[in-house]
Structures are given as C-alpha cells and as structure tokens.
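Consider the tokenized backbone below.
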C-alpha cells in the first residue's frame, strides 16, 4: 500500500479517537499518525506520535497541526463531552431531549 502524508487525531485519549488512531496505525496507509490529547497520556496507540493541545486555544491546535511532518492529509477531530453531571450534560436520547 502506498503511504499518504500523515494523519492527525485530536482527542486520541478518548475511546473513539483512540480506536481511530489505532486503526490508522494498523492499516499503515500514512507515513505518520499523530495522536493528540489534552494531557500526556500513556494510553495512546503504540507507534502513534503523541502530542498535547488545548482545545480552547486555537494557536495550540494550529501549532500541533503545523508540527506534523509530512503535512497531514487526514485530520480527525474526536473531541467533545458526552457526560458531565455537574453541568447537566448527557447524550440526547430523542429529538424531544434537544433544546
């Protein structure tokens, strides 16, 4: 398989992001796979290149993307909050649950 540029996954310490980064590494279709999280995490896919970023700081995100070599041709954003009891956030179960 011919390798494309690099792939970068923001939110790779969560379940979905980690699974996507792991799959990209396993497929071997990218020269590099970068796996980002808010804090340094030992729970990132093996053979992925870890990085940290602040989702609320645009320069932090831009710096992470700019550090990829080769330049990313695939960017995955797997960030977000599904549950936060303190703020009353939970996944929607139906259209009636949306406001």
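A designed sequence for it:
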């Amino acid at each position: 398989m011919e390798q494309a540029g690099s792939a970068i996954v923001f939110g790779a310490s969560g379940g979905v992001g980690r699974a996507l980064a792991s799959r990209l590494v396993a497929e071997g279709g990218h020269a590099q796979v970068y796996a980002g999280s808010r804090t340094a995490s030992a729970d990132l896919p093996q053979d992925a290149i870890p990085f940290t970023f602040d989702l609320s700081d645009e320069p932090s995100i831009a710096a992470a993307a700019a550090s990829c070599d080769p330049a990313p041709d695939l960017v995955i954003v797997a960030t977000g909050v599904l549950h936060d009891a303190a703020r009353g956030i939970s996944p929607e179960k139906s259209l009636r649950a949306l406001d």
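The mean pLDDT is 85.
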